[in-house]
Amino acid sequence: MVTTSQLRKGLVLELEGAIYSIIWIQQQTSGPKAGVITKVKLRNVRTGNITEHTFKPTDKFNDVEIDRRKNQFLYADGEKYVFMDKETYEQLSVTKGQLGKGALFLKPDMEVDALYFKDEMMGVEMPPTIQMKIISTLPSVTNASGNVMKPAVLENKTEILVPQFLSSGETVIVDTHTGEYMERLHEPKKEHK
Prior knowledge:
This protein is an all-beta fold. It folds into three domains: about 1-65, SH3 type barrels, CATH 2.30.30; about 65-125, CATH 2.40.50.140; about 130-185, CATH 2.40.50.140. Helix content is about 0%, strand content about 50%. Strand 8 and strand 9 form a beta hairpin. The radius of gyration is 20 Å and the shape is flat. One of its GO terms (molecular function) is translation elongation factor activity. One of its GO terms (cellular component) is cytosol.
């Protein structure tokens, strides 16, 4: 059993008969008598759906032992995404729904953690961020305010919003859970000889 005070990002637990992974957690004081409440975003490991819950300090949960194994993304076939277990070479598939927004950011041969429960592949845990190159966007505006965004198409043909100062050819870091731009990747400066 796990108490509310033991909840942390990445923990897998059973709630109302379903298995969830915590992807976001925040603790708030709700008043002198109520104590600390914990707000979490949970990803259903089987379906990929994300829900939000608020827990009281007295709530308890069944933690679930999830086995994480390295898998390599091979290809997408319609709604199915095929992976290969790096140890057994067995090919397994999950649905686009199980991957959530992460499906938009898979690259061929990309290595991910596959989640197994009682030897059944339940889903895939994407890295929290991924680097992607912008292949097309409107011309950059150097003196634009930081909050003004514009559409940009990434190397995998996914469209996201990026700040006005970015140009085609630049690499950005994207949150795989939300699909949102996080920051520009600064290339190391080349030394002149």
